[in-house]
Amino acid sequence: MKQLLNFPEEISSWSDNADFCNTQPSQILTLSCYEDRITQLHVTGNIWFPHLLQDFSAVSLFSNLASFPDLKVLSLVSLGLKGPLPPEIGKLSSLEILNVSSNYFDGSIPREISSLKNLQTLILDYNRFTGQVPDWIGSFQALTVLSLKNNSFSGQLPNSLTNLGSLRTLVISANNLSGQVPVLHNLTNLQVVDFEDNNLGPEFPSLPTKLISLVLRKNKFYSAISDGLSSCYQLQKLDISLNELVGPFLPSLLSLPSLAYLDIAGNKFTGKLSQNISCNTDLVFVNLSENRLTGELPDCLQPDSKSRVVLYGGNCLSRRYQQQHPYSFCHNEALAVRISPQKQQEKRPYGKAVLASSMVGGIGGGMALLGLAFLVFKRKFDKQQGNEMPHTSLMVDKVSPAYTLKMLKNARYISETMKLGALGIAPYRTFVWEELKEATYNFNESNLIGEETHGQVYKGWLTDGTLSYTHQLELISKLRHSHLVSAIGHCFECHKDDSTVSRIFLIFEYVPNGTLRKFVSEGHSGRKFTWTQRITAAIEVARGIQFLHTGMVPGAYSNHLKITDVLLDHDLHVKISKCNLPLLAENRRLDDGGVSSHGSKENCGSMLRYEEKNDVYDFGVILLEIIVGRMIVSENDVGISKDILLVSLSADDKARRSIVDPAVHKECSDDSLETVIELCVRCLSDELSERPSVEDVIWNLQFAAQVQDPRHQDCNSNTGSPIQGI
């Protein structure tokens, strides 16, 4: 063992005469004995250990372990072990607990594990296991914990899971599992279920009633939820967000006697809420966002409680609540599912109607009908007879007819999607050329903000008093979200001779308060953001990235965001000012079959996952600067600061606080700080698979906001309450 682990310092004193059973535990190794026989072995790696030799053999390691006939607990965590899990594991016949998490084991689970009849806990988290969860997994009559999260298991869950009568914890999150969940109703001891981030569905699973935690987030459940959830009186956490669940929301969930965390966001729940609905007093986090709920927020969820986080945007609640859709949005959504494909085809918008009513589809369709290419231009000035006369230098990108047709087909969907999250932004409309000339004083140089790759940026005042600027960029009028610098209109300049379009002007909202960097690392008027404000800003950045990925067709990935691309509006809320719209790039186009012009659907999906994780890394760099409070301007800065964060996770709370911006290190709670640091390190991982999804980022930041001690929140913050900010 000593030789295989490359002689770590902690066991350098071992010899044939060592009294192993009385060895003091170290950070990397712990031994336990019973009657002078080794019964437990825990080996845990860190950034210094182990440095395995190139010829290291996991088979040799497990062959040596087999010489411990009384070994009941084996934990080999974060050791960098690679390859298939050796079948020699089956020789540890006394084994009751096996934990080989955070390694690089791949392939299928070896069948030899099924011979471990005494096994009570099996943890294979954060590896690279593939294939199906084997049917023989149901043969462990004593198994109480089964955790397989963050692997690449696929296919359906075996029905043999229903035989695990002693099972208390079942965690299979972050895999590629699909299909219907086996009936688990008879597993009466089951308390923790975590199926997050798979493709399970469509029917809501049948579950026992003694659950303490249920997480079904980010799957493909399309049905109504089970009424049995209202009988889960021990349930403390319920997260069924980011599915397509339908039917009425059950208000009784709010009053479950043990519930502390409820997240139903991103579904299609309907129903009318009322002020007299009661809530459990222990409820600290409620997320009702992005559903089809109407009525009034219950009094127990009003955003005036400092001890309860409540999110409710994206519904159709009464007008006194912010970020709500009009009532017709929820009503129309219910009607839309009843329209047959034939009727949808009859009502599809054509020609100039598309041009007038939808944004991206309208511009794309209108230009195609006129027989023109999309134009991106720079504006130059010549002096002629003492006047500034504009002329145009054109760069032409052509869009294929097939892609234009695809955009026209999706026009209705795109225009509806752009409404989400865009409340509070001036309504999108068509401007006339004279309005832009008047707003910018005929494009006077005094209103020139700057020049970018695709054109010049001017500031102007519209006739209704709205401050905005014109931005000559390509087709980005689809950007409509509360955390993006959003387009509020467009204008076509036409040739006088034949009325064809010569140039496109896009009008965006104006964001006055500079970049996020000024409030976290440069200081602003002698004042920096509080810890609560920083978490809120980070959540808003992540929400903006989430919309760029999933709120548009096609999504915008690999956006190369920097903290200087994150602007702050009048109320110090985040507005992302940069994105990578791929609409005009032929190599990113999908045809009507959904297949990339350069590969299969699988290749396209892999590319999007890769590009999503690029944005997660860039977010991690932004979060790093938010934490440490100093400018991060190079990869070397990132590497050094990341290593410091990593070391701090194994240090005590006082040492961890020493690396945080001194302006906030006293006010952040230990749990909140540790959560944010762990998230940042994961975002900056060199391994794409280890970086979290954007949804995971948002969840962790919301949790960090939840556990932040209310006494440390800045009540005079200009960003408003954490509820409004989130």
Automatic annotation (TrEMBL):
* GO CC terms: membrane
Q: What is this protein called?
A: Inactive leucine-rich repeat receptor-like protein kinase
Mind telling me which InterPro entries this protein's record contains?
Kinase-like_dom_sf, LRR_dom_sf, LRR_R13L4/SHOC2-like, LRR_Rcpt-Like_S/T_Kinase, Prot_kinase_dom, Ser-Thr/Tyr_kinase_cat_dom
Transmembrane listed as a keyword: yes
Q: Where in the numbering of this chain does the Protein kinase domain appear?
A: 443-703
UniProt key word Repeat: yes
Q: Identify the taxonomic lineage of the organism of origin.
A: Eukaryota, Viridiplantae, Streptophyta, Embryophyta, Tracheophyta
Pfam families for the chain: LRR_14, PK_Tyr_Ser-Thr
Gene3D superfamilies in the cross-refs: Phosphorylase Kinase, domain 1, Ribonuclease Inhibitor, Transferase(Phosphotransferase) domain 1
Topology in the membrane? Single-pass type I membrane protein
**At the top level of its lineage, which domain of life is listed?**
Eukaryota
Q: Give compartment(s).
A: Membrane
Annotated membrane-spanning segments are 353-377
Q: List, in alphabetical order, the Gene Ontology terms for molecular function in this entry.
A: protein serine/threonine kinase activity
Keyword terms of this UniProt record:
Glycoprotein, Leucine-rich repeat, Membrane, Receptor, Repeat, Signal, Transmembrane, Transmembrane helix
